[in-house]
Amino acid sequence: MTVVTSEIRGGAGVIFFANADGGFLTSEMVDMAIEKFDALRADENVRSIIFTGALDEIFIRHFSVEEIIAMSSALRDNNKAGVTPERFALSPLRAFWEKVDNCPKPTIAAINGVCGGGGCELALACDIRLAAKGTYTIGQMEILVGILPGAGGTVRLSRLVGPGKAMEFILRGKTFYPDEALEVGLVNQVVEGDVLEAALAMAGEFDDKPPRALAAIKQAVKASWGNSTMEGVLEEGDLFADLIATDDQAVKMMEDYVTDGHVFKKI
Question: 4-204 has which CATH code?
Fold first, then answer.
């Protein structure tokens, strides 16, 4: 069974996760997802990328604990042999999340069901998180099996909800129902009905917006993380000046706005 698939719907590329064996994420699935993600990112007709689960009420349950136990055994053997391991931050799993985080195209997590551990880390790496209404849970619960998030969960959750809340949530292994996740800022919206359709409708809003402007907005917002206000403002100003100096679509849209009597076109 192919556990990671992709398709293009309108201007959106959609990646589906479908591990029937419990809905867990595996290293093999990460390799598949990277290949499909790279293809969608390189396709100029794809304006945004959506991630969702193909199983009923499962986004990604979490990363395979069996694989983590195997990683533990290999690392212990290397330690006994005096082999200096590569930093885990350079692993394919971490590399995938970084690809998503740094993608110039808008990314959306359409959370259709349980979303924990590595699944939550993938959602956190996306720009926008939509969650279907339900009684499933979302969160970083690694401490409940004696470990911590290993693919950016501590950092990205802190940036999203603040370090104080993130500290509590991760230390307690706290998970949230969708409505609760919305209250604490873990998701952007809770959706009645089909969350993928809601994500596609949102993705459609990006189809006619200048790709370079979208990428610049993402870069400017992320430049504010860990920088002073002045550093962030300088980065934003540089991006703004470069865009209006070099992007023909941006200039055309501004000219059309003036010609049309200062009326924004609904996109």
Answer: 3.90.226.10
